[in-house]
Amino acid sequence: MDSPLLLPLVALAAAAGAAINAVAGGGTLVTFPALVALGVPPVAANATSTVALWPGTMASMWGYRAELRGARRWARVWAVPSLLGGVIGALLLLRTPERRFEQIVPWLILGATALFMLQQPVLRLLREHAPHRSIALADGTLAPPPAPYLLYQLLVGVYGGYFGAGAGILMLAALGLMGLTNIHQMNGLKNWGGGLMNLVAVLVFAASGIVHWPIALAMAVGATAGGIGGSLLAQRVGQTWVRRAVVAIGLGSGIAMLAGLI
């Protein structure tokens, strides 16, 4: 993976991953297998992918900025477990032996793919059976998240800092249970939580020295463009074909890793 000729390929993979994150979630299911297939060791590939996709997450959050009006106080409270969980997860990854991570990562990918496949049915079920309540206050702002959801977000943050694929889906489920119904606002808040947990993970990985910086920087450029484009596209088009592509990539790469083909 030292050839500069491959950098445009990883930038393209990052652009696709960031756009998928903005549209439907699951971008790591594209970028992580791509890096492993190109010869990057799994732990370093995971760290590099996290670093590379972070600008795209923040760019896509900017694309949802109009949907986040009135959520400032909510976002400040949500930030605490997101940041703390991200640090814990990143440190756990650094303490995981390379061989052990190679053994568990196919199951992480397949599990994240299963979550992705269940996302729409789960959210539909939550909206049908969750208590009919609104967290909007009289002044149009959002009420702060209840304490149990802050603990839940801490656990999601640990997973997000450790691997991350599917973390957005877990956050969307919690947002649906809390009473949010606007999917664009939910995506913006999801990107806020994911951006924070990834920010602290990025700092931990950068300090550890395991990030492949030429790859990460090339991917960051692609991810920024993909994040902005994806957030704008998500508000205009359906997600069916994007979701099918992510499922195919996730299942294919997870099975290939289990079989030792990647």
Describe this protein's structure.
- This protein has 262 residues and is mainly α.
- The protein has one domain.
- It has ten helices and no strands.
Radius of gyration from the CA trace?
17 Å
Structural class comes to mainly alpha
How confident is the prediction overall: mean pLDDT?
80
How would you sum up the major sheet? Answer: none
Strand content: under 5%
* E-strand count: 0
Along the chain, the helix and strand elements come as HHHHHHHHHH
Report how far the terminal alpha carbons are from each other.
Answer: 14 Å
Stretches where pLDDT is under 50 for at least 5 consecutive residues are none
Any idea how many domains? 1
The shape is globular
**What count of helical segments does DSSP give?**
10
The amount of helix comes to over 70%
Summarize the structure.
By secondary structure, the protein is mainly alpha-helical. It has helices at 7-23, 28-37, 42-63, 72-94, 98-129, 147-162, 167-178, 183-208, 213-234, 240-258. The relative contact order is 0.24.
Give the topology.
Elements: H1 7-23, H2 28-37, H3 42-63, H4 72-94, H5 98-129, H6 147-162, H7 167-178, H8 183-208, H9 213-234, H10 240-258
Helix pairs in contact: 1-2, 1-3, 1-9, 2-3, 3-8, 3-9, 4-6, 4-8, 5-7, 5-10, 6-7, 6-8, 7-8
